[in-house]
Amino acid sequence: MSSITRRSALALGLSAGTAALLGACSTPGTNSVNSVATIPAAQPGEKITLTYWAWLKDLQKVCDVWNAQHPLIQVEAVWTPGGNSGGYQKMYSALAAGGGPDLAQVELRSIPEFMLVNGLVDVSRYGAKQYAERYDPTLWNQVSYLDGVYGIPQDAGPMALYYRQDLFQKIGATPPTSWQDWATIAAELRKAGSYIDCFALADSSWFAALATQAGASWLKAEHDGWTINMTDRATLEVAEFFDRAIDKDLVTTNYGQYSAPWFAAAANGQIASLSSASWGDALLQGVSGASGKWRVAALPRWTGKGFGSSYVGGSTAAVFAHSKHPQEALEFAVWMTTSREGIDAMIANSGIGWSPSKDYIGAQRQQPSAFFGGQDYNQQIFLPATKQQNPDWSWWPLTQQSFEILSDGFRKKASGTSLVSSVKLAEQNIIEAFKNKGLSIRKVTS
After folding, report:
1. Which sequence spans correspond to the domains of the chain?
2. CATH code of the domain made up of 160-310+392-443
3. Cα separation of 193 and 257, whole Å?
4. Got the DSSP string for 175-230?
5. Cβ–Cβ < 8 Å for 153, 139
6. Is-contact 322 92, C-beta < 8 A?
């Protein structure tokens, strides 16, 4: 990758913030799409077709709702594999060849990595900021880097506690309101033959979500590069807590949530609850004999600062660098993610996670659920959870690599390495990974 200093990036017309984010990575031989003049909208009466690459099922049915109302701006959905299952590689290859779609599904956490290869249009240049008030502010923050906006939030996963009401009643417990209560209930459930949850050593994104809830903010974009702090009080409190939980056999590390062994254990009453995202409701319905047994409660809270919930997962509709119609692509993305028609179509056809709109959760999510014993859990639990998020969390380049580094450390828990030690070592290794990419990063303390 060719080196771009902050000064030379500014000379190309990039903002100071974008220069810092790009650091030393760009597609060789290219100028940033955001350093050239904006592309004008289509001429009156001109018919255009936008392409949208995504792994959402039946996305064309959503596009067809728009297409019926906008005969001059048609959208064609093209299915791709999931991001890290081949979809991103296809997108990167298309960008390197000077092509690619007008829009693509990019996870919130992957936005900075596409920015590093000049892959995304800063849609604030096409008026995106005028739509900010329509979105969950925490999600909007996760697509905003300094002065730019690099994706439109598409869906997310506010967290809550799913629990087996009968297993909790068996030990005389109600849903825990604090993580300390959670640990106490976990000990009682173990006596009754169940685990309260599992801790997936191979997937550190769940740990990151709970650290976020506790108040962590690991990496931040500054005008002169990135700062990192993974050894803050919040993160270490969460690591220490789960070190104790694993050591006391309060959680199982033999499998992860929603894996085949997990489904078998849940069907046999060996899993009594799970802390997971709103999209987990559909997955829970795959547990044999589970209908009517599960309920939803607010996520337990950490001591100190902390927040009521956190997010797991979430995607954007991002405008790609070689789009000839970024203005129209932005208009479609905003319609799809904030209009009642778009949101309802996304839920009905594509089964999206939680709507990014701060004003509308979707018609299907405003009614009681027979599976959850008649509970209206979306409005009672998940809607409040969206308003109890950590606003300071943001994603960074090398997020996937960072999670792999952290997971590699967590896997050593079985051989005696603590989660706390793994977090501290991961921070050092992530700093080295940044430097190896030519990215500016410095350690800060809280």
Report:
1. 1-37, 44-156+312-376, 160-310+392-443
2. 3.40.190.10
3. 18
4. --SBHHHHHHHHHHHHHTT-BS-B--TT-THHHHHHHHHHT---EEEETTEEEE--
5. yes
6. no
List % helix, strand, coil for the chain (3-state, nearest 5).
Answer: 45, 15, 40
**Distance (Å, whole) CA 199 – CA 256:** 6
Longest dimension (CA), the chain: 71
Residue pLDDT tens, the chain, 446 long? 333 333 233 222 333 334 444 443 443 334 678 888 899 999 999 999 999 999 999 999 999 999 999 999 999 999 999 999 999 999 999 999 999 999 999 999 999 999 999 999 999 999 999 999 999 999 999 999 988 999 999 999 999 999 999 999 999 999 999 999 999 999 999 999 999 999 999 999 999 999 999 999 999 998 889 999 999 999 999 999 999 999 999 999 999 999 999 999 999 999 999 999 999 999 999 999 999 999 999 999 998 779 999 999 999 999 999 999 999 999 999 999 999 999 999 999 999 999 999 999 999 999 999 999 999 999 999 999 999 999 999 999 999 999 999 999 999 999 999 999 999 999 999 999 999 999 999 999 87
Determine phi and psi for 95, rounding to 5 degrees: -65, -45
Reduce the DSSP state of residue 123 to 3 states and report it: helix
CA dist 149 → 105, 116, 232 (Å)? 15, 14, 28
d(CA 381, CA 403): 28
SS3 52: strand
Homologous superfamily in CATH for domain 44-156+312-376? Periplasmic binding protein-like II (3.40.190.10)
| DSSP string for residues in 79-113 | E---GGGTHHHHHHHHHHTT---SEEEEEGGGHHH
Same CATH topology for 44-156+312-376 and 160-310+392-443: the answer is yes
